[in-house]
Specification:
heterodimer, A: 166 residues, alpha/beta, six-stranded mixed sheet, 5 helices, globular, B: 527 residues, five-stranded antiparallel sheet, five-stranded mixed sheet, 15 helices
């Protein structure tokens, strides 16, 4: 195993697009069909960082949950980073993502966390107000993403990789 | 992990149990050395997709599972999706300088959970969508109750098609009107040139009226058009109508007379585009439905009211069709004739919105007479006397970033804004607009909503969510309340529609530039 490999867990409510983000990032694909994730699917991708050695992100796509149960806690063991995912068209999913972060930090106090507000292609239907993200940005790195168009996806993962490599 | 006590059983039972166990768990054991090199593999590797050309990659993916985990103690990762889509419980068992990785089949259990979970999640998503939909349905329920569901659906589809068509007209018309304005400002006093410009504008207006007819219908019957009352030069308007319709009438051998009486010294104030739309539609019908004889238009400005009588000797409208003549796509009154049958419905709706009256008399074979009376509108409070004096003075040195991917429109905006005194920078995509706006902090960002790739609304949202406080004006070819609200919700301060109303454009630009970075966001209706 390479020393530059990092475990990254995708966390968020169901249907926010965690699997789609991984699929867009790793395979450059997108499917309109919603298929729930059961358990975990692990993928990996090498990320090139300017001026640094590349690192490998091992992505744990975990089934969507509104809270972390014992099984999810099992999956989080050894994670170096979290990509919290919310759906811009469902404000409640943002609260869920933040709750999940708080719960995850009890197990992983030093974990790198980045927030992705997904479905930017549906921005006209967003319930999450710009001001809410402006406020969040004071304490958390936030990216608007669209797994469908690819907008912001590379940037969100590159942000995590940069923070991990720092 | 210690094995539970198990009572001693006869050897035959034990053999049977062992068979059942191995068959059910489909165990696969992989043994790695301390450097995670595979040393041994026992069991049904093919079942888990760990055989064949990609076996090495798949085994590597298994090893990746334990990145970051403490390797000196056993680990248990339930329900891991394998490369072939099956699911396994994966166990790590450290053994001196080696690791055993044990896979136990979880496919059946996972599938059962997946079906259950999918149903639950879909139900929850549907329930959320339902709550949203109920909110929206409440708003339109009163309208929906009046109409049959299938007819309503067809109606909505038709409207969407028309609105889209009209929307497609707006972008090129923005260029035409804008460039005419630009040329007009820069052209000299050479009479032929001025006449040519006048003719161009007149005909572009006619084209715009036709497109607006469609849009007006596409808006739906309950939507209220936004009126923009300004002082109107009635003489110029009448002269335009004469120039527009006289050649058409004379081509058919008809007499055409337009008269004007100005009996009130007060300046007439109307939404000029709507006023032209009304008169163009009525005259257009008169010319279309008259085969011989004459058409007369009498325009009188008296006692704060504009009265227009348009009379023709055309085919007329039968009494039976008096009630349906104002229904869209209904040409009952003019059977056998061409045309979309939109004009009169638009005219009626426009006049009602302008608080006027419309009356008509008609006799089959003898002709029709339409009488319009429109009260003077209240001029918008912000007529901006200061703007009219010296816009350049106000805006000199202010900076603006323009984002539009249509090179004609971008060039036009650059010219218009340059004339207003702005320092203009143009980009042609939303991503560049976000980067440049954050870095350059222009006084105003003017951004097209319908940009290819990242939309203008998404760019505005991204800027606002990053704390961007500059003024933002969005420009769109979609003239609907919903589109405007979506843009304002995303964080725009002003919403303008194409084609540009130059006066309004100038006013909005001045307002945006004067508040600049100090002003507080105050979303307003501009279009």
């Amino acid at each position: 195993m390479s020393a530059a490999a990092f475990k990254l867990c995708m966390l968020g409510d169901f249907g926010v697009g965690k699997t789609s983000l991984v699929s867009r990032f790793v395979h450059s694909t997108f499917s309109e069909k919603y298929l729930t994730t059961v358990g975990v699917k692990v993928d990996s991708k090498k990320v090139d960082l300017p001026g640094r050695a590349p690192c490998k992100l091992v992505l744990w796509d975990i089934a969507g949950r509104s809270h972390l149960d014992a099984l999810n806690m099992t999956y989080l063991r050894g994670a170096s980073a979290l990509l919290l995912v919310a759906d811009g068209t469902r404000e409640r999913s943002l609260h869920t993502a933040l709750n999940l972060l708080m719960q995850a930090r009890t197990l992983l106090p030093e974990v790198v966390a980045v927030l992705a507000i997904n479905k930017l292609d549906l921005v006209e239907q967003w319930e999450v107000a710009p001001a809410a993200l402006e406020e969040l940005r004071r304490t958390l790195s936030v990216h608007e993403t669209s797994a469908r168009s690819g907008e912001g996806v590379e940037a969100a993962f590159a942000d995590i990789a940069t923070r991990l490599a720092a | 992990m210690s094995a539970p006590d198990f009572p001693s059983v006869p050897p035959r039972v034990e053999t049977y149990l062992r068979g059942v166990f191995w068959q059910r768990v489909r165990a696969l054991l992989l043994t790695f050395d301390g450097g995670w090199h595979l040393r041994d593999m026992r069991g049904d590797a093919a079942y888990y997709g760990l055989e064949g050309a990609d076996a090495g990659k798949s085994v590597q993916a298994l090893c990746d599972l334990f990145v970051g985990m403490p390797l000196h103690e056993p680990q248990d990762v339930p329900f891991v999706e394998m490369v072939n889509g099956l699911s396994a419980h994966v166990h790590l068992i450290p053994d001196d300088n080696a690791f055993h990785v044990l896979l136990l089949d979880a496919a059946v259990e996972r599938e059962r959970q997946r079906v259950q979970q999918q149903l639950g999640n879909e139900e929850a998503l549907a329930s959320q969508a339902k709550s949203k939909a109920i909110g929206q349905l409440k708003q339109i329920r009163s309208e929906l109750e009046r109409q049959h569901a299938r007819l309503e659906e067809a109606h909505a589809l038709k409207n969407a098609l028309i609105a889209t068509l009209s929307h497609e007209f707006r972008t090129p018309l923005t260029s035409i009107f804008g460039y005419l304005q630009l040329i007009d400002r820069r052209a000299g006093d050479e009479p032929q040139m001025r006449e040519a410009l006048h003719a161009l504008r007149r005909n572009a207006t006619y084209l715009f009226t036709l497109a607006e007819n469609l849009l007006e219908y596409g808006r739906g019957e309950t939507a209220v058009p936004l009126l923009n009352p300004t002082p109107v030069d009635i003489e110029a308007l009448v002269s335009d109508l004469d120039a527009m319709f006289r050649p058409l009438a004379e081509e058919k051998g008809l007499d055409f007379r337009v008269t004007l009486k100005l009996e009130d010294a007060a300046q007439p104030v109307f939404d000029e585009i709507r006023l032209r739309q009304i008169l163009v539609n009525l005259l257009s019908n008169a010319v279309r439905y008259t085969r011989r004889g004459e058409i007369t238009a009498e325009v009188v400005w008296r006692a704060q009211t504009l009265a227009v009588d348009i009379t023709d000797t055309g085919i007329g409208i039968a009494a039976a069709h008096r009630d349906t003549v104002f229904v869209p796509f209904n040409r009952g009154g003019h059977a056998g004739s061409k045309g979309a049958g939109l004009g009169l419905s638009i005219v009626k709706r426009m006049i009602e919105h302008m608080h006027g009256t419309l009356a008509f008399e008609s006799e089959v074979g003898r002709g029709s007479s339409f009488r319009v009376a429109l009260p003077r509108a209240k001029e918008r409070a912000a007529a901006h006397a200061d703007d009219a004096i010296a816009p350049r003075f106000w805006l000199q040195g202010r900076s603006i970033l323009v984002a539009d991917d249509d090179p004609d429109v971008a060039h036009l905006l650059e010219g218009l804004l340059g004339d207003l005194g702005f320092r203009v920078r143009v980009v042609n995509d939303a991503q560049s607009a976000v980067l440049e706006a954050m870095a350059g902090r222009p006084d105003v960002l003017l951004i097209d909503v319908e940009l290819s790739g990242l939309s203008g609304n998404a760019a505005v949202y991204k800027l606002r969510s990053r704390g961007y406080k500059g003024r933002i004006v969005t420009l769109s070819a979609t003239a609907t309340t919903e589109a405007r609200e979506a843009a304002l919700r995303a964080g725009a301060d002003h919403y303008l529609t194409k084609p540009l109303n130059v006066e309004q454009f100038v006013h909005v630009m001045q307002q945006a530039a004067s508040t600049g970075w100090e002003g507080v966001s105050d979303a307003s209706n501009d279009a």
